[in-house]
Design a protein that fits this description.
Elements lengths: L35 E3 L4 E6 L5 E6 L2 E6 L5 E6 L8 E6 L3 E17 L1 H4 L8 H6 L3 E8 L17 E4 L1 H4 L4 H14 L3 E7 L11 H5 L15 H21 L8 H4 L13 E5 L1 E2 L8 E11 L9 E4 L3 E2 L1 E6 L2 E5 L3 E2 L2 E2 L4 E4 L8 E10 L5 E2 L7 E4 L8 E2 L2 E11 L24 H7 L9 E5 L8 H19 L6 E4 L14 H11 L6 E4 L15 H16 L11 E8 L2 E7 L5 E2 L8 E4 L6 E2 L1 E5 L2 E5 L8 E4 L9 E2 L9 E2 L8
Parallel strand pairs: 1-7, 7-10, 7-26, 8-10, 26-27, 27-28
Antiparallel strand pairs: 2-5, 3-4, 3-6, 6-7, 8-9, 11-25, 12-22, 13-21, 13-25, 14-20, 14-23, 15-22, 16-17, 16-21, 18-19, 23-24, 29-30, 30-35, 31-37, 32-33, 32-36, 34-35, 36-38
Length: 666
């Protein structure tokens, strides 16, 4: 059945420069080879074409068409596809686009700030996880972020990749492990769309219209969308100030003398070069400079690599790199595009370059400020044939030779002096900015649900986070138009924020997060026991992913029986000199370690909390203290980095809580 041409208002999608009266059919980056399409749902496809042009989409046995409107926008919704794949998706207008190796499965978006952005290679067991990441049924899409958000966003930057050691290192560790647990239980393809940005507040991920429509949040949006002239002038002044600051606080890339001196040639002398281990940051290896540094090594590849196009995976480089193979430049990531380096993690080696089984790989890394070198996972560095998704990988981690081309003084600026974006600005911290830049161009791509890890940047504004987080969830659901899809989030882990308050901001933020459970189809993974009091980025991401997957497998897929949540506060009652606390998900309450429950407090009408003796009684917790004769309130784990140990029979930790709503202590 032919469906009407429909449009969404959350994204202004422009995918091509139109020349004359004709433009090739274009689609957003979220559509590509190796993508996962959500099974059991209608499948929207959309993009740009010449106004009035008929665009036809064919995916396996489903076909639909639409006519591009006056602005060139079109959308086709295909009915659910029952085939598993792989198959081809073809989009035909005046030109034809085809995507191969497309499969049906489960699609989840993984979003938030740095603890969701935290890469697999950096997490506990990351090297082993990356090395064992090969899985043709697990597909990864990472939205690449820019140094700063552009004033106008037309599409995201990213592409689908089959999970492999070369592709998984920088994907969200939480998202990767979550997907792995789903794969194991569901035995079907899973696609993770990783769109996260460290240090960003929830309002940046929420449309400004939704903020303005919530009375408690309207003041966050200083400039209405209608005031474009004022906003444009403010944006121009701000961007000029930022560029001036950046130029003053970064080193300029010096001329490439190493190439002229033959550093990339296989015949080059290595006299004066030093052997170092790669990957690695050169400051950690004793080289405390900014500037340009060369690395090179010879690698032996199999005979069947000769005369073939190869893929070279180097992972991340700080800050950018120029890449050579047998003295031929195969990539230059040190060109700036919209204020950021254009580097990537995959470089194609032309078959003409591969004349023998010996390759000389040379990398000129330029570090403009901060730390320099290879920030890759060891397993992510390799050479392999481009015509095989899996196959022989020639690893590149290990000893390389290093030579300094140009040492520059280290730049270590105080980023607090960097201009701060005013409200209404298209900047990563500004209200609405990341919704439009990192999310909207992919809406309404069909998916199952969202996993979310964020809140650190809103600590200190916990009261505001209560309506803000709920508004954001509703906003996403409204934008997608897929109903109340599952929205699973991670409650902040234990961390000593150093606020120096009796009642800490992180405890209040956790409380605000838990209030979102009143929304339908939401779930929370408690992480109070697996944080690090001295590190805002705890590294045990596997357990976070597992706890999120328990909720999904039980509540979304009905595939895993048993408990899927830690104990949640369900109320309390006074019984003489004691307080009795009830929990949902509280079967088998017990201490996680030792024989004594810790972390509970009790207070009388004087509002002075003291540590309480806690015992398990008939599926509840009974609290008492000789210092409190008439309990008025109870608390558990109410601090930034509490010592608390209540769990249920499934070993899942209880969420911190308080029964009172008393003002915070000074």
């Amino acid at each position: 059945m032919r469906r009407p041409c429909l449009f969404i208002s959350v994204a202004v999608v422009v995918f091509a420069h139109v020349t004359g009266a004709r433009a090739d059919v274009k689609v957003p980056a979220i559509f590509g080879d190796h993508m996962v399409l959500q099974e059991g749902r209608d499948l929207p496809f959309w993009g740009k074409a010449t106004p009035g042009e008929t665009v036809t989409v064919r995916a396996h046995d489903k076909v639909g068409s639409a006519v591009a409107d006056a602005s060139g926008r079109w959308r086709v919704d295909l009915p659910p596809i029952t085939a598993k794949g792989p198959f081809e998706v073809a989009i035909q207008g005046a030109n034809r686009i085809a995507f191969s190796d497309v499969v049906m499965g489960e699609v989840w978006f993984a979003s938030g700030q740095s603890n969701m952005e935290f890469g697999l290679s950096e997490s506990d067991g990351g090297s082993e996880a990356v090395a064992g990441a090969a899985d043709p049924g697990l597909r990864l899409f990472r939205v690449n972020r820019a140094d700063r958000v552009p004033a106008a966003s037309e599409d995201v930057r990213g592409n689908w990749a089959v999970s492999a050691p070369e592709t998984a290192g920088n994907i969200s560790a939480v998202g990767f492990h979550f997907a792995r647990f789903l794969r194991k239980s569901l035995q079907k393809p899973v696609g993770i769309v990783h769109t996260a940005w460290g240090g960003t507040p929830a309002e940046a991920w929420t449309r400004t219209a939704s903020l303005q429509g919530t009375p408690e949040l309207a003041s966050m949006v200083e400039f209405p969308a209608t005031d474009q002239k004022t906003l444009a002038a403010i944006r121009a002044r701000y961007e000029k100030a930022v560029e001036k600051w950046d130029v003053q606080h970064r080193n300029a890339n010096p001329p490439n003398r190493g190439e002229k001196l033959g550093f990339a040639k296989p015949s080059a002398s290595l006299q004066g070069w030093t052997q170092v281990s790669v990957p690695g940051i050169w400051e950690d290896q004793g080289l405390v400079i900014d500037g340009a540094v060369w690395y090179r090594r010879e690698v032996i590849v199999p005979e069947d690599f000769v005369g073939k196009t190869l893929n070279l995976y180097l992972g991340g480089l700080n800050d950018c790199g120029t890449i050579y193979v047998n003295a031929v430049q195969v990539g230059d990531g040190c060109k700036r595009v919209e204020g950021r380096f254009s580097q990537r993690e995959l470089y194609a080696i032309d078959a003409k370059i591969v004349k023998s089984t010996t390759l000389t790989i040379a990398v000129r890394i330029f570090d403009e400020r901060g730390r320099g070198g290879f920030r890759s996972a060891p397993g992510a560095m390799a050479v392999m044939r481009s015509d095989a998704l899996t196959g022989v990988r020639v690893p590149l981690a290990g000893p390389w030779m290093q030579k300094v081309e140009k040492a520059l003084p280290q730049m270590d600026p105080d980023f607090s002096s960097r201009p701060v974006p005013p409200a209404g600005m298209a900047d990563a911290q500004a209200p609405g900015a990341l919704f439009h830049y990192m999310l909207a161009p992919m809406i309404p791509f069909a998916m199952r649900g969202v996993i979310w890890y964020q809140g650190e940047s809103n600590a200190g504004r916990a009261r505001q986070y209560r309506p803000l987080f709920a508004t954001m969830i509703r906003d996403w659901r409204d934008a997608w138009g897929q109903g109340d899809f599952p929205f699973l989030f991670v409650q902040l882990a234990n961390y000593d924020s150093g606020m120096g308050r009796a009642d800490h901001d992180w405890a209040a933020l956790r409380e605000a997060q838990s209030m979102a459970l009143s929304l339908p189809n939401t779930g929370m993974a408690v992480a109070i026991d697996i944080g690090n009091p001295t590190d805002i980025h705890p590294t045990n991401k596997l357990e976070v992913g597992r706890r999120l997957s328990l909720w999904a497998l039980n509540q979304v897929y009905s595939r895993e029986a048993g408990e899927y949540s830690g104990p949640l506060f369900a109320g309390w009652s006074r019984e003489g000199k004691t307080g009795r606390v009830a929990f949902s998900h509280g079967s088998g309450l017990r201490p996680a370690s030792g024989k004594t429950l810790v972390g509970f407090q009790i207070a009388g009408s004087d509002r002075k909390f003291v540590n309480a003796q806690a015992t398990v009684d008939k599926g509840t917790i009974v609290l008492s203290s000789p210092e409190v004769s008439t309990p008025a309130a109870v608390r558990y784990g109410w601090s930034d980095a509490p010592v608390c140990n209540l769990q249920n029979a499934a070993g899942l930790p209880a969420s911190p809580f308080r029964s009172d709503d008393w003002p915070y202590a000074p």
